[in-house]
């Protein structure tokens, strides 16, 4: 185990090579000095350089990007949280290049290079796709917190009783017991069986779990030493969940079109409202 985790991810924007010079993906950039820029970008994919390898995320899967701490990217040492539409969060260092937006002014298009060190928040007009049902939630020592496609992900546990390779869909909870040496893993299956042993990847690399994701990169191969927990949770109450933090401070140009406080309509999928992760964050923090 590593004694002091450091960020694993570096975020690189990949510009599309063709099409409208300003693209057709709407984004909203909030700067630390109070300026707000709304326009379009040519970027279609975010590339993450990770400790797990290089992964590409379709822009359409992303809700927003924020500094991990501090008011801006500069204040956060370029460490960011990439929040996907389904509530998954990947953390790391955004290393560049600079983001160029196209602003529509006087019936024309103006390119603006965003001062990345002053960027506080980048939002997209993405619908909320947090799953309202059973999920398998993975958390790492670096602050990553994401859901996986449990029926397409296998794990291996080597116990003194034998070798077991269930899908994550068969696992109720998987936690590391650091008291022993070497550390062991406790796997509780939905059948009620509890197994204890050494966790290993079911694929080519036994030191990493190769996990399928429903949104974002198709797979992540995460070193076992970097995994804090894998837990089965029921998110079935999300559809009726009302987030006080969202209701108190709706954001984006569509905010003044919402109903007064007391009957605030939260944005539906593909509503055109700027994505706001606070409802998802509030819901997940109670799980």
* Count of separate DSSP helical elements: 2
Task: Tell me, briefly, the overall form.
Answer: elongated
User: What is the alpha-carbon Rg in Å?
Assistant: 20 Å
Order of helices and strands: EEEEEEEEEEEEEEEEEEEEEHH
For the report, how would you describe the main beta sheet? Answer: 9 strands, mixed
Low-pLDDT windows of residues: 1-10, 14-22, 246-271
Distance between the termini: 26 Å
Count of spatially separate domains:
3
Kindly report the average pLDDT value: 79
Strand content range: 35-45%
Class per helix and strand makeup:
mainly beta
Instruction: Specify the helix fraction band.
Output: under 10%
Total beta-strand segments: 21
Strand order of the largest sheet: 3-2-11-6-7-8-1-4-5
Q: What does this entry look like structurally?
A:
With 287 residues, this protein is mainly β. It has three domains: 10-124, no CATH class; 137-234, no CATH class; 239-273, no CATH class. Helix content is 5%, strand content 44%. The chain contains two helices and 21 strands. It has helices spanning 244-248, 278-285; strands at residues 10-15, 25-31, 36-41, 43-50, 53-58, 62-67, 79-84, 89-94, 100-105, 108-113, 119-124, 134-140, 145-148, 155-159, 162-164, 171-177, 184-189, 194-201, 208-212, 219-223, 227-234. The strands form four sheets. Strands 3-2-11-6-7-8-1-4-5 form a nine-stranded mixed beta sheet, with no helix packed on it. Strand 14 and strand 15 (162-164) form a beta hairpin. It is elongated and about 70 Å long. 34% of the residues are buried. The model is unreliable at 1-10, 14-22 and 246-271 (pLDDT under 50).
């Amino acid at each position: 185990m590593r004694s002091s985790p450091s960020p694993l991810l570096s975020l690189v924007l990949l510009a599309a090579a063709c099409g409208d010079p300003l693209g057709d993906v709407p984004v909203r950039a909030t700067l630390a000095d109070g300026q707000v820029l709304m326009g379009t970008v040519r970027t279609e994919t975010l590339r993450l350089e990770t400790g797990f390898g290089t992964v590409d995320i379709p822009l359409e899967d992303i809700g927003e990007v924020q500094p991990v701490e501090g008011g801006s990217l500069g204040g956060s040492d370029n460490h960011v949280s990439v929040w996907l539409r389904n509530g998954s969060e990947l953390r790391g260092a955004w290393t560049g290049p600079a983001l160029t937006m196209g602003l529509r002014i006087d019936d024309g298009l103006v390119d603006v290079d965003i001062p990345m060190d002053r960027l506080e928040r980048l939002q997209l007009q993405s619908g909320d796709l947090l799953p309202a049902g059973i999920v398998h939630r993975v958390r790492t020592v670096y602050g990553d917190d994401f859901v996986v496609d449990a029926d397409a992900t296998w794990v291996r546990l080597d116990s003194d009783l034998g070798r077991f390779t269930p899908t994550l869909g068969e696992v109720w909870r998987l936690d590391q017991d650091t008291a022993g040496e070497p550390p062991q893993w406790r796997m509780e299956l939905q059948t009620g069986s509890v197994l204890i042993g050494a966790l290993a990847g079911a694929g080519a690399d036994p030191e990493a779990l190769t996990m399928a994701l429903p949104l974002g990169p198709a797979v992540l191969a995460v070193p076992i030493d970097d995994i804090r927990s894998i837990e089965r949770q029921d998110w079935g109450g999300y559809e009726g969940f009302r987030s006080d933090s969202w209701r108190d401070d709706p954001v984006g140009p569509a905010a003044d079109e919402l109903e007064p406080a007391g009957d605030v309509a939260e944005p539906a999928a593909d509503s055109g409202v700027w994505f706001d992760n606070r409802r998802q964050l509030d819901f997940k923090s109670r799980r």
